[in-house]
Amino acid sequence: MSAVENVQAALARIERDNARVNAFTAVLAERALARAAKVAPDAPLAGLVFAAKNLFDIAGIPTTAGSKIRKSAAPAAEDCILIRRLEAAGAVCVGALNMDEFAYGFTTENSHDGACHNPHDLTRIAGGSSGGSGAAVAAGMVEASLGTDTNGSIRVPSSLNGIFGIKPTYGRLPRTGSVPFVASLDHVGPFARSATRLAEIYDVLQGPDPMDSCQLAKGVDPVLPGLGGGIAGLNIAKLGGWFEGPMTDAARGAVASVAQALGATATVSWSMAEAVRAAAFLITSSEGGALHLPELRTQYEDFEPLTQDRLLAGSLLPAAWVNHAQRVRAAGRDAMAAIQREFDILIAPATPTVATPIGQEELVLDGVRMPLRPSMGLYTQPISGIGLPVVTVPIQNAEGAMPIGVQLIGRPWQEDVLFRAARVLEQAGLCSAPVAPAFAS
Amino acid sequence: MIDAKTFDPAAYVAAMAPAVGLTLPPERQARVAAALALVVKIGAPALEHAVAEDVEPAPVFDPGVSRP
Prior knowledge:
The complex is a heterodimer. Chain A is an alpha+beta fold. Chain A is about 35% helix and about 20% strand. Chain A has a single domain (about 5-440), classed as Amidase signature (AS) enzymes, CATH 3.90.1300.10. Chain A has helices at about 5-20, 30-35, 80-90, 130-140, 155-160, 195-205, 250-260, 275-290, 295-300, 310-315, 320-340, 370-375, 380-385, 415-425, and strands spanning about 25, 50-55, 90-95, 110, 115, 115-120, 120-125, 145-150, 165, 185-190, 235-240, 265-270, 345-350, 360-365, 370, 390-400, 400-410. Chain B has a domain at about 10-45. Chain B has helices at about 10-20, 25-45. The interface of A and B includes residues 216, 276, 281, 293 and 331 of A. Chain A: Keywords: Hydrolase.
């Protein structure tokens, strides 16, 4: 199919299915068809149809970041750098996607744009904060999407929607042209329905950007050429301790299946996991609150009801706590480096449970009652807290019809190893991401 | 770094909110104090974790990068 035909098919699916999923907040048919008409047939991503979380700048529409406050903002003057790179490679952006307001949440129960629904069960959450990015791909409305991950916002939707996603090493991909949340922790990355497609997209997204003062990767490390390299010679272990905490049998079983398929028999414990998760929580609270303090002073009631009080509280945190949290994070990185000298890949659950019903407030796991929304990040937050790369791989039908994801965690800057392992799991038939059955026609 | 048993979120919010320009009615103050209490509960393992003097904060400031 040509790029134009791909875009027409995607627009038809969006027209048919989005009302049920509520993944899109803007559909850009005219723009997409015009750009598709100019795609060179031999471009690396020719005809790939994607969409972007609505905190990425898309020329001509306001970058709302899921908020009411920014709905009246001036339209973005140009596309963000990641969209520019994808479209330069022949992909076509068809719209903007639903999210938790200002990326502060794990459920995409957005009161301004409406909740995003999980394509595997429309009564359940799509995860967040990149919920629309996960749901649009799982429902087959687009082949890929862009999201962001501060504490788990790529990995949680990957898990709950049953698709592949990569949160690269902190500082790998440029964030230019996206609305920030927590500069110390913000990552950007793609979602897709196969490891190979994810690798193709990820390679196109790489490259230095002088406009991003937080980008640390000065070169490009393509993963596609070595994708079929297998896992022979790699040392792989399960993460124990904190990562064996409260979770459902589905999460526990998914980790066990992936560990077995990758030949991981050892279990290692990172003693600072809880402290780093706590540090990430404090840094998030403070930086998020401080970023929005000007609007909080005058219009906090225009913020998402789920986050108003959290942002206000965060804006008040003592500086000494936040500074200490940044040092705890550094100590946690050093402790993990000692573990990673021996192991190439560490395996951990992505979420403690499959997707939960929209509106649910609490989780009870292994007899422990906990608030649902922060707990979705129990096992992702410590890892992004020290910036390690993670490919999330999906297991379908983990609990009834619901999927769940597993984190493959690598050494800094070694995303290539994670892609190789994901491809092995895919070839073994354990991990796959077909369009959700209700949307598969 | 913190004694969770003696930290009083309500008193803290009442004192700090005006200092950063937030005018919060009493009901809102109580809700923000509850949110702060949750932050303290989840953040406590970091605040209670001692770090060596030579462990530097994580963010890197690059003096060679500037935006127009």
